Amino acid sequence: MFFNRMESGRASISDAVYMEVITGLHGTTMPTVLAAACQAMVGAITTYETGDTVTAALTVAGVVVAIVRLFEIFAFRRRLARPQQLGRAEAVLWERRYVAGTVVTALVLGVFAARSIVLGDALCSVMAIGIGFGFGAGVVARLALRPVAALLDLVAIAGPAAIVTFMQPDLRHVGLGLLILMYVVASFEMVRLSFNASINQITLKRQFEQLSRIDPMTGVSNRSVLTTDLPAMLAAGMVAVHTLDLDRFKEANDRFGHPVGDALLKQVAGRIKALTTADDLVVRMGGDEFVLVQRAARDAEPMAQRIVQSISAAYDVDGQIIELGVSVGVAVAPDDGRTAEALLSRSDRALYRAKENRGGYVLARDLRTAERTASGKAAEGLAA
Fold first, then answer.
1. What is the Cα–Cα distance from 144 to 10, expressed in whole angstroms?
2. Helix extents (H) in 168-297
3. Helix (H) or strand (E) holding 90
């Protein structure tokens, strides 16, 4: 049941929050450096006191693994600094590399502690087991949102030492083995509690994120979404930006009252949404202005025609039949602009021309053609 919740909880994390989690995992090198430094110190002391070559080899292995992990962390930071945005699929690969590194580190520390117990030097055993317990505490803190990885780390740390202690016939070693197992159980219980608390916090964060992106009256996105989503949609390929302004809405609002005006805006938003696909974006800019960002940019003009036809159909609000019009300006990337600002500016210019024409739609490319024609004629007149 808990592992099912872990999987559903992981899937419920939005891409933005997931990126925060992965970035947080790579956010510090201190645990890796400290673990390697402690193992190097204890390994050197144990090797000096006992002359054990296995301990020396495990010490070298721990330092090498730490160096590899540090390179992985720095590589992630360099990748994060690139202009190209890190996608979720790529982030999953970075997470797997990080988790693999922690599991290998935990296994090396676990075998290191087990070897110290076999050697029988009490003080060296205490130091080696202490390193493992300290690393385990860090696992509980860092990997609460990755419980499976945390459990693998805890088992890798405690497993070898517990096996070695239970192989010893005396009561002291059996007691030590039981203490190690109880440490694992208690640590994983802390992971479970931290996981549940974190998932609840993430759920609340997602709800607040959604609320901050929604226009409360119409249920479509608000203008803040355009700032974040339009550049991302542009980076993914061609888009068409339709800027809409309702005609005769102010007269209807003044005549029938604000409640009717609000109901009209809801119906308008619903009609726009009905024309779109799941990949499109509908934004209420404020008042009676809307923006539709269309993925299928090649279908931009037919979409503009459908918008005008749909919005211009009569509305029934509490028995009142109301007719509105709409003016639409359309700009298509990349021909009309390669940035969000350029597209919005040119669709606005096309919208103003549509309003001058008393409704309908105007394409930004038609404005450019008209401007070039006019400038050409002016140049001919000057030459004459």
1. 11
2. 171-213, 223-236, 249-256, 258-275
3. helix 88-119
How many whole angstroms separate alpha carbon 84 and alpha carbon 13?
Answer: 22
Closest CA to 338 of 239, 205, 207, 227: 239
**3-state DSSP assignment of residue 139:** helix
Instruction: Name the burial class of residue 321, with classes exposed (0-12), middle (13-18) and buried (19+) by CB atoms within 10 angstroms of its CB.
Output: exposed
User: Which residue carries 């028995």 as its tokens?
Assistant: 319
Kindly report the pTM of this predicted structure.
0.60
Nearest alpha-carbon partner for 183 in 117, 110, 101: 110
Q: Are 150 and 140 in contact (CB under 8 A)?
A: yes
Per run of 10 residues, the mean pLDDT along the chain (length 384 residues) is 47 68 86 92 94 95 96 93 83 92 94 93 91 88 82 91 89 90 88 80 73 86 88 87 94 90 94 92 93 90 95 91 94 90 93 92 83 52 47
